[in-house]
Amino acid sequence: MSVTRESMHGQWSTRWAFILAATGSAVGLGNIWKFPYITGENGGGAFVVVYLICIAVIGIPIMMAEVMIGRRGRRSPINTMRALAKEGRHHPNWQWLGWAGVVAGFLILSYYSVIAGWAMAYVFRAGSSAFVGATADGIGTIFSDLISDPERLLAWHTIFMVITMAVVSRGVAKGLEKAVRYLMPALLVLLLLLLGYSMNSGAFAEGVAFMFAPNFSALSWNGVLIAMGHAFFTLSLGMGAIMVYGSYLPSDASIAKTSVIIALADTGVALIAGLAIFPIVFANGLPTGSGPGLIFQTLPLAFGHMPGGTFFGTLFFVLLVFAAWTSAISLIEPAVTWLVETLHMDRIKASVLTGFMAWFIGIGTVFSFNIWANNKVFGMTFFDFLDYLTANIMLPLGGLIIAVFAGWVMVRGTVKDELQIRNPRLFQTWYVLVRYVTPFAVVLVFIFKLRGDI
Fold first, then answer.
1. Which residues contact 421 (CB under 8 A, 6 or more apart)?
2. How many domains does the chain have?
3. CB-hemisphere CA count at 13 Å for 290?
4. Is 34 a member of any domain?
5. What residues contact residue 313 under an 8 Å CB cut-off, 6+ apart?
6. Residue 177 is part of which domain span?
7. CATH number of 49's domain
8. Structure confidence at residue 349 as a pLDDT band (50, 70, 90)
9. What is the pLDDT of residues 27-79, one digit of tens each?
């Protein structure tokens, strides 16, 4: 049964506007900051293989389901789940899936903004030649001085949150769409420039081998969980962002094609980022398993000793800020739309309120690196706890419930009507994946996790 709804927030002008926006949501710190360091920590090629399988078997089917649910409901994730549950004569408690996604995105933004603030600070450090000729100890001092200073971290965190809210407050056409039309092409150009430099670093073949020659003995079951969690994190799944962006998608746009394009673009950016970063790491004899400091400690050392390092270092951190910005505006959008729809706030007030709340929670992450460094939550700092809770638990669980809702709760005819997949075999393949394979994979990994095997 065809249902025609319109979003009160407007819609993307074209399918490609949605692709740019959703790719901007997906492409962020997860691709350029997180993917290289977790690849380095988990053995390289084997981790990449498992990650790609997770994208194909779990990521794309759930992305299609989330976009489909969003477009069907045309509201914020919370109100969409309530409306679709009512449409299918199911219990209204399904709205809690929307709430879980909004909260997950909100928590991610709270610490995401702090890390993005590091990148903003490093743009100026790289541009002022602070890394030129610096030793490893000198680079380490620059990083430790930054994160140990709560006032400086708070200032950068505040600036990033303000520029994010400035875009979100302008709405779909004037804010979100206008921003990604410029930021996404600029991001791609900057990344390709850095890749071009990396190809001439003298260690490109070594970087390629590290990323694409799998050694499964170097991959633990915990690495498998991290790969699955990152597939959700990098595609912005389970946090309401893709659902609310889907609610702005024109009715005649193909959900299947756009989802595949977005997943391929996001994965391509992550792989290009790895190919741009690891050859530089190998060329300078630096460790691959440097953890979160790979971008902020390891690479600045390389930039400080390479020809044109000031230019390419500045370029890299500008790229990192752009990537963070396009993702941040999608993380807060679900909460803003709910406030506008339910409490009838104007968009500017809703943006200011949500931005302030995320900023306030982000203070906990700021303090995690200095005055609260010894305060632990389940053995983790506040930042580590939020990162683990969202990426490894909330997002996969959210994705699992989205798959269950799309595959088992929604009427098959409604799903088929909204997806508009003309090839019966392709629809059946997606339906089997979202009903059986994807939920089984997520549950299996969680069972191993609970048993302590990963």
1. 256, 427, 430
2. 1
3. 22
4. yes
5. 126, 131, 299, 300, 303, 304
6. 15-451
7. 1.10.4160
8. very high
9. 777 777 778 878 888 888 899 999 999 998 888 999 999 999 999 988 888 88
